[in-house]
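Example 9 (inverse folding). The structure is encoded as follows.
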């Protein structure tokens, strides 16, 4: 399955490799946004800066959200 069939229309210049990169970017943005929101709410500046600067394809934000962040009551 390629990216063009998912969208239902053809995008000139978008091949399989470029589509994969686009999906990784979307994946990273979703997880990064959630982790940044949680780090800001918990006032954890070091985590906020690390998540903001490092691009880890969602690994660091997922670890922060499920392992290192404070559990809400």
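The amino acid assigned to each position is listed next.
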């Amino acid at each position: 399955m390629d990216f063009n069939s998912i969208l239902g229309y053809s995008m000139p210049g978008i091949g399989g490799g470029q589509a994969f990169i686009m999906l990784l970017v979307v994946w990273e943005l979703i997880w990064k946004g959630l982790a940044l929101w949680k780090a800001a709410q918990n006032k954890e500046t070091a985590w906020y800066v690390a998540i903001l600067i490092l691009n880890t394809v969602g690994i660091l934000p997922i670890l922060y959200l499920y392992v290192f962040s404070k559990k809400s009551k």
